[in-house]
Amino acid sequence: MAAKDRPNKLAFLSMPAPASYVAGLGRGASGFTTRSDIGPAREGPSAEVIAEAQARRGEEVDVDPEQFQDPDNEYGLFAGTTYEADDEEADKIYEQVDQNMDARRRARREARENEELAKHRAERPKIQQQFADLKRGLAVVTDEEWESIPEVGNLTRKKRKRDERSFVVSDSVIVGDRARTEYETALDPRQQTNGGLETPAENGTITNFAEMSQARDKILSLKLDQVSGTATSTGLQTAIDPKGYLTSLDSVVLKTDAEIGDIKRARMLFDSLVKSNPKHAPGWIAAARLEEHAGRMVAARKMIKQGCEQCPKNEDVWLEAARLHNNDDAKVVLANAVQHVGQSVKIWLAAADLEHDVKAKKRVLRKALEHIPNSVRLWKETVNLESSAADARILLSRAVEVIPQSVELWLALARLETPDKAKAVLNKARKAVPTSHEIWIAAGRLLEQEAYAAEKSPEQRDKELAMVDKTIEAGVRELRRHQVLLTREQWLKEAERCENEGAIRTCEAIIKATIAMDVEEEDRLDTWTSDAEAAEAKGNIGAARAILAYALRVFPDKKSLWRKAADLEKARGTKESLNAILERAVHHCPQAEVLWLMWAKEKWLAGDVPAAREVLERAFVANSESEQIWLAAVKLEAENGELDVARELLVRARTVADTERIWMKSAVFERQQGQLTTALETLATAIKKYPKFAKLYMIQGQIHQQRKDFAAARASYAAGIKACPKEANLWILASRLEEADGKSIKARALLDKARLANPGNDVLWAEAVGVEERSGGAAQAKTVLARGLQECPSSGLLWAMAIWSEPRPTRKARSADALRKAGSDPWVLCSVARLFWAERKIEKARHWFERAVAASENPADTWGDIWAWWLKFERQHGTPEHQEEVIKKAVAAEPRYGPTWQPIAKDIANTRKSTREILELVAAALH
């Protein structure tokens, strides 16, 4: 009964098909034709029937995307039209409208979508979310609990067929398994034929491979001993070196089949070559070398012997034959060679090289000279073998008789003769070879050598040295008369060579005689200056000095030339030579203040204060109204403690010169002496005379600020800003005054006004950033810094501040940006050096510090802070030599600027301190 009540699952087979039913349509099988389709068949439902059925089921009607397509144009109805500018503009307008509409609804739409998504996730969470708490609970499951979890069985409730197939085991497996534990007791036919095993083992013992290895080594050692001759029992004695035997084995080249094939092909080619052209010497040489490469020395010698027979007049064949034979056979070969090519210098020299005895070498070379008396090389080799100067002199005398055109032999003979005879030799050489400039230069060097040889009076030495100049001048004239025209560059090279070999006066004489050659009159100054700089760069100081001396004789009133000559003497010369140059300079250019000041400073640095005063007195006579000379005199007296004299000089200077800088120095002098009231009075008078000089207002404000009179200081800075609104330092001092008075807001406002009056000034932006940092607003400081970089994108000062305002991980990237924008700025280079310093890359940091201080064209314009950073770096990682080198360079540069340098250098307490002391103070203040 229960079976009858159960519904029949196959009842649908007897039901009629739906109106829209197509067999196989669901699986895409309605497109093929079967045998039953042939003949009358039922048509499929039409499109209207299918649409009606889909409407009844609630399905949307599919829209054919190509129903509106032009049947003649598969790309659309409007594809062939021209897309004009109006169409593009319309598309942009519609696109902009769509974007605006979308932007208006975006916020509400996104909020609604997020809300619907959250609601959907709450109603139908993901399986991952459903089991998240259970997953977290697995963290506390122990290993025992995990192992006790039962295995999952078959939960599908489906019966699975068991695979009950069986397979027959192969006979080979059964036989192999049976014979695995059995022992074979019979011999096979091969063993019976040989009488047992091929390698019998006595008594069934196991082979000892260690003893076999020892026996092999013993046999090899015995063979080596026999070959080396140590085993005297056999009577074998050879010349083989036992230590070099294995090394010689390593040198054996094993040729591959390809190499052997190449050698065979090359041998065939060379055989064809020498047979077709037996008089071609290079073919014989190449064929012999091929046999040598193949290791067939006998065949190589035989081949080259045939070459010597075929080409007896070719020296290269004979030389190759000598090379392929041993020493004794080579002598025989070369003896035959000189019978055929007795005029070959190479043959005779090769024969001399084969001789190991000096006497034998001499004998060969003298025999060669009998055959080839005009060979310079043979004469030189023969002379070099002589140990006695007298014998060499005799040979050279004979050589110059035979070969009078050889300059080398004449010069060698002159070097071996005494000075008097050397002159006669050079005179003969000059007559024999009138076109040689080397002989004239040698004559000049001989005269110079004579002048410095013995104890002579200065007058006599100068007279003999003057002969050097005359000799070189005469030589240049004679060479020009014989149509020998050397260029300026060639003469300069000869002069530099003379200087490098110690003939300074000859070098100067050559330059005097030839420096004006091939130079246009209007280009002389520039050409000679560049020649002097090039010579100095090469290290030829004598040549550079001679070029400048000649230029100064032609242009004695050129201040730049005297300055360059003085700088050369200061860097490479002595104090005496520097004083001599400066004395001549001020004589020829008395109006050049810088030359007077250099001379006075050198006297002062040498400790000769009276001489410095005398120089300045002479400078006053020539330049009575010179501001620099007056101020130098004041500084000299003040530094040496003569304060009253310095004050008197300032009073006279204000009367005679009456410049704004003298008034300023007067006020500074009084301030340094503590006479603040006198300084203020001087400043008041100076401001009336020079109201546009900003430094007067700065000093006046600083004195008031020093006296804690903020109102008066504020009034001074305000007056200065009104008179000089373009002076950035005035604005900065006024801002710092307000900041010192606790009014940061007013300081900020002052800097804003300053930037309006001075747009694009990076110093003002840097000060504004500093104000924000000191007031504790780091974020505001970064904002101001970003605005400053927008207005001054190439400011190295701002980029350096930007690098250090970044966190440590991003500083390197910021420094790369700074190098792209301001790669040659000293502040950026110094910041990069400090970054390498922080990474402990010592050599790179030192290199970048050097670049930073060399970035300024004028050494005085270098920032003192950068020198101080470099010194601080060397104090931590450098040697005492590195530290001293940095200090010397900084003192020579005399830096004057820097955010930290200037306040320390201009502090009243550091008035008389040297540059070295200021540098140490600044390095200690940096952090």
Please explain how this structure is put together.
- This protein has 927 residues and is mostly helical.
- 68% of the residues lie in helices and 0% in strands.
- Residues 200-204 and 230-239 have low confidence and may be disordered.
SSE topology:
Layout: H1 2-5, H2 47-56, H3 85-123, H4 127-130, H5 132-137, H6 143-147, H7 171-178, H8 189-194, H9 209-228, H10 242-250, H11 257-276, H12 281-293, H13 297-310, H14 315-324, H15 327-340, H16 345-354, H17 358-371, H18 376-384, H19 389-402, H20 407-416, H21 419-432, H22 437-453, H23 458-481, H24 488-500, H25 504-514, H26 524-538, H27 541-554, H28 559-572, H29 575-588, H30 593-605, H31 609-622, H32 627-639, H33 643-656, H34 660-672, H35 676-689, H36 694-706, H37 710-723, H38 728-740, H39 744-757, H40 762-774, H41 778-791, H42 796-805, H43 811-822, H44 826-838, H45 842-853, H46 864-877, H47 880-893, H48 901-905, H49 915-925
Helix pairs in contact: 11-12, 12-13, 12-14, 13-14, 14-15, 15-16, 16-17, 17-18, 18-19, 19-20, 20-21, 21-22, 22-23, 22-25, 23-25, 24-25, 25-27, 26-27, 27-28, 28-29, 29-30, 30-31, 30-32, 31-32, 32-33, 33-34, 34-35, 34-36, 35-36, 36-37, 36-38, 37-38, 38-39, 38-40, 39-40, 40-41, 41-42, 42-43, 42-44, 43-44, ...
Summarize the entry for a quick read:
The chain is an all-alpha fold.
- Gross morphology is flat
**Low-pLDDT regions:** 200-204, 230-239
Structure class: mainly alpha
Oligomer: single chain
According to DSSP, the number of beta strands is: 0
Mean pLDDT equals: 80
**Number of continuous helical runs:** 49
| Helix share, percent | 55-70%
Strand content: under 5%
Radius of gyration: 53 Å
Q: What's the end-to-end separation, in Å?
A: 104 Å
Describe the largest sheet. Answer: none
